[in-house]
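Hey,

The postdoc asked me to send both predictions to you directly instead of through the lab channel. I've kept everything plain text so nothing gets mangled by the mail client. Protein one:
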Amino acid sequence: MDITVQLVRELIDNQFPQWKNHNITPVDKSGHDNRTFRLGSEMSVRLPSHKRYAAAVEKEIQWLPVFKPLLSLPIPAPIAKGEPSKDYPFPWSVNQWIEGETVTHGNIRSQNQLAQDLARFLLELQAIDASKGIPAGVQNFHRGGNLRIYHDETLSAIAKLAGSYDRKLLSDIWELSLSTGYQSAPVWLHGDIAVGNLLVQEGRLSGVIDFGTMGVGDPSSDLVMAWTFFDDDSRAVFLEHMNVDEAMINRARGWALWKALITYVGNEPGSELSVWGHHVIDVIIAEYKQRRQLRHSEG
């Protein structure tokens, strides 16, 4: 949807007139699933960009207040729920503003430190009682569920890579990710641990945002930063602090591969997204070969 400052202004003025005098400004990296605007200096407005993301509003309003006191890093704190209008058809939310910049390789103290900080946060999230949580499924694009839901899509993407990659190798990596299932009790997962949802201040991880794809299930999908951001050393630090077994790593690698493949083949060659997907595929292949060689040398 084309969500403009004027539209947000009308929604705020009509539904929350107490904030009429607060400035509304777009956020530089507003996101894909939702559009985010700053409201005054201490609040943000978050609006789903499509009906498939609208269910996240209720979910965040219900669960983020439960999570907040149990986590050591700031997360969004819902302040108010906005209702659909004649010009905007979905529920939306007003949240407390969280200071920080989007994580980049240039604004962090070290990748190893970020790896430790992120692992600590994810383990805290997983420790929260998930017995009444929302099971993985359509509501969160199957994050935490069975990766096989994306089997056909992944094979289709691999088939389009003739001449670019060893398609058998990619198929082997993918099949390995499908070879095990999650056997433990379901735990809470964020669902979209990516640089756009991680904030940093003074070189350290300072906040985690956008819980729209959260749910309970297999937390392997929350580990994709191991391939999408970290280098060899920090990847090892991250996975070690997460205390995950080989099967979990294989499933997590599969989540990263699926995302990289569909991003690479689904965007214009040479575009920022396509280049990102290409890079992540390269990282996944190199790490997989290293791990395979290590297993052979040990065996």
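Protein two:
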Amino acid sequence: MSATRYTYLGPEGTFTEAALRTLPEAATRELVPMVSVPAALDAVRNGDAAAALVPIENSVEGGVTATLDELASGEPLMIYREVLLPIAFALLVRPGTKLSDVKTVTGHPVAQPQVRNWLRAHLPDAVWESAASNADGARLVQEGRFDAAFAGEFAASTYGLEPLVTEIHDAENAETRFVLVGRPARPAAPTGADKTSVVIWQREDHPGALLELLQEFAVRGVNLMLLQSRPTGAGIGNYCFAIDAEGHIADRRVGEALMGLKRICPKVRFLGSYPQAFSAENMRALRAGTSDAEFVDAAEWLARCQDGRA
């Protein structure tokens, strides 16, 4: 395995590359762009890279389905950290292009909902066609296949383009969350501001089936940060659920919730416990009865009862 190689959703000039370069270790790694999320993750699976950075959630569009589906299937991988990156688009064009010249535009499919209102107001007649990534859209503009691309302003120089308009976003403070994914190993120690990610499959579809799964978290005071259903491919109505929960697998409340899920679900895939991208000050206070000390106290009380010492 190449311990110095990190892959990412390419080509050069993507927001994913920008997010990867915020990691301190990126300066000492070989950063290799890949054509797709599956390709970036498969490089980790087959030992060609130590880790991959891929987008997993957008504050406007929600979960990135390509990443969620890839992590839920195939050889298991594990998330080791996350990166939050503010997202604003620039309209990149070939030099000399005016706004009135733009008849065709491109960008990643996740970008379109983030600029839809701007397009309607400024380029109502422009035809949109999706690209594999925003940077790939810029490349297609460079090649003359489209008039303009929505991408990061930083991608302009890479593809010989100019930012015709900058700071384009329909939603203020839009962010995308990226995750650094590697092969499974022991999770890092808890930091006090952690997140645990899992994918769970329900045993059967019946009234209250999802509620039963969520109660494993609720009764232990575990807050959920992401819940997204994804089809399993086994037919209409068959879903698995990608879940992000506050806390670390080493926290008693989280560990017991996962054990509860393992008892009632046919399959649970642990995707990792890792530091959240924001500080502990943003963590919700624990509900009464859900701290590790209170779980230990309850276990000791049960043991005394079983020994006749209660």
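Summary for protein two, as requested: Helices lie at 15-20, 37-45, 65-72, 112-122, 134-142, 209-218, 252-264, 292-306.

Thanks,
C.
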